[in-house]
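Hey all, sorry for the wall of text incoming. These are the two entities for the joint prediction.
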Amino acid sequence: GQSLEQPSEVTAVEGAIVQINCTYQTSGFYGLSWYQQHDGGAPTFLSYNGLDGLEETGRFSSFLSRSDSYGYLLLQELQMKDSASYFCAVRDRGSNYQLIWGAGTKLIIKP
Amino acid sequence: GAVVSQHPSWVICKSGTSVKIECRSLDFQATTMFWYRQFPKQSLMLMATSNEGSKATYEQGVEKDKFLINHASLTLSTLTVTSAHPEDSSFYICSATRGGRNEQFFGPGTRLTVL
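and here's what came out:
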């Protein structure tokens, strides 16, 4: 079957760095995406990894290792506004751009 | 660019009535639109995939006669919840893809409360 695993909750301190891991099982992996969702809001796209390696976008970076079926989202210089849920999602080959979603990781940031 | 709107943002209705939710891509043509449902503190659950001019593809367990999807143009898809019941109360979110892009662009969501 197809599944994604990520921690349900992570706590970090303002200004610190946090890493949210995601492991996946899928029959036809095509890419790993990360989305951010604040309470009451809709998800917003953060990053996409189609190939192995690190993608950096400002304070956020995302990493993928296809051989390990593993990726992570790295958030640096944490700000209180980064408190949100973070979802990893896998695009499955031939799935008409459908995404298979993880359960989400709630990031709690303390001052 | 790539803005998706939803209307209404929230709706309260009586049990047994039908509710229509609109999803529009404002500045691009959406080849594919998706409808999701999200219950509190849970992940997004894909309900259906919709391509313009063709019938929607529903996920297992989603009743196509209850959740009617119409994708009449490249910028508009509608979801109608027919004969709504309290258990249909949820956050409904649409998203759209733009050809060749790897991301889905999400609407702001519609919070449906059925009394």
